[in-house]
Amino acid sequence: MIGPGEYIDPLLLRPFSLADITPPDDKHPNGSLIFFIRVAGKGTNILKRLTVGTSLSVIGPLGLGFPPVADDEKLLVVAGGIGIASVLGLTKKYQGVPLFYGDRTKGRMLNIEWLEMPEDDIHITTDDGSCGKKCGVLEFLESHISQLRESYTGKIKIYACGPHGMYRAMAGMNLNAEVYVSLETPMACGVGTCLGCAVDTVNGLKMVCKDGPVFNLKDIIWDG
Ligand SMILES: Cc1cc2nc3c(=O)[nH]c(=O)nc-3n(C[C@H](O)[C@H](O)[C@H](O)COP(=O)(O)OP(=O)(O)OC[C@H]3O[C@@H](n4cnc5c(N)ncnc54)[C@H](O)[C@@H]3O)c2cc1C
Ligand code: FES
């Protein structure tokens, strides 16, 4: 949870994914925490205008991340939009894993240099075709899985971060895989006390900030 210390409006810190951690160097003797932040409203606009050297209020790390991947499982990583920030660490931890990264248009996407992975492992889609394939990221994922299934019958795990609409669509697809998603529900306290980030699951109400943000997709109950 991050916020500019001296502001009282907005009062609440905002949740962001810790995209990366870099070790100390000459320029940053304490090392760095890397965040990718897309401007959405008041809080992110204030963060955008901060100048170098400003102190921030930070609480974290909070919540639970993606579970470990077993040796006999194939991992596929999916990022929709700014969800790329949440899965960047995974692509470093599990090298050689394919990344499916989609957004509306090229201008909204992260420069692929930040991904630090072989280009052959990165499958990019945009709705308008300005970068990568012109299709939805799930369409691409689905065709990759059906190709993979021609020669591989073992377990497939999918780790995804993106908008709720993407998860709803995934819940309705037959992906023949175990899917974990990182929910980006708006948050207030970030530590499980305000109940503002509750999500309905087959195991009862869960707090995205404390019990998540990562959940098994099949456990989430979608309303409507
Ligand atoms: C676990 C988690 C990790 C996240 N990681 C990142 C990240 O790495 N990078 C990043 O850019 N963003 C991330 N987000 C989303 C980010 O927290 C919101 O964009 C931010 O809180 C918006 O704050 P604001 O004050 O700028 O917008 P507000 O003024 O509060 O809201 C502006 C608009 O954005 C909508 N909004 C607010 N919060 C969210 C949200 N969480 N999801 C969808 N819509 C929202 C509001 O409904 C409103 O329409 C993450 C969210 C969660 C819960
Ligand atoms: S944000 Fe307060 S309980 Fe999750």
Strand and helix map with partners:
Blueprint: E1 2-4, E2 20-22, E3 32-34, H1 42-48, E4 56-58, E5 73-80, H2 84-93, E6 99-103, E7 122-126, E8 133-134, H3 137-148, E9 155-161, H4 164-171, E10 178-182, E11 198-201, E12 204-207, E13 214-216
Parallel strand pairs: 5-6, 5-9, 6-7, 7-8, 9-10
Antiparallel strand pairs: 1-4, 2-3, 10-13, 11-12
FE2/S2 (inorganic) cluster is lined by residues 187-190, 192-197, 207, 209.
Structure description:
Helix content is 17%, strand content 25%. It has 224 residues and is an alpha/beta fold. The chain folds into 2 domains: 1-61, no CATH class; 73-219, Nucleotide-binding domain of ferredoxin-NADP reductase (FNR) module (Rossmann fold). Strand 9 (155-161), helix 4 and strand 10 (178-182) form a beta-alpha-beta unit. The structure holds flavin-adenine dinucleotide and FE2/S2 (inorganic) cluster (FES). FE2/S2 (inorganic) cluster (FES) binds next to loops.
Main β-sheet description: 7 strands, mixed
Domain unit count: 2
State the shape. globular
Strand content range: 15-25%
Low-confidence blocks of residues: none
Count all strands and give the number.
Answer: 13
CATH architecture of the largest domain: 3-Layer(aba) Sandwich
Instruction: Just give the CATH class of the largest domain.
Output: Alpha Beta
- The percent range for helix content is 10-25%
Please, how many helices?
A: 4
Sheet/helix structural class: alpha/beta
Distance between the terminal alpha carbons, to the nearest Å?
30 Å
CATH superfamily of the largest domain: Nucleotide-binding domain of ferredoxin-NADP reductase (FNR) module
Order of helices and strands: EEEHEEHEEEHEHEEEE
Overall mean pLDDT stands at 91
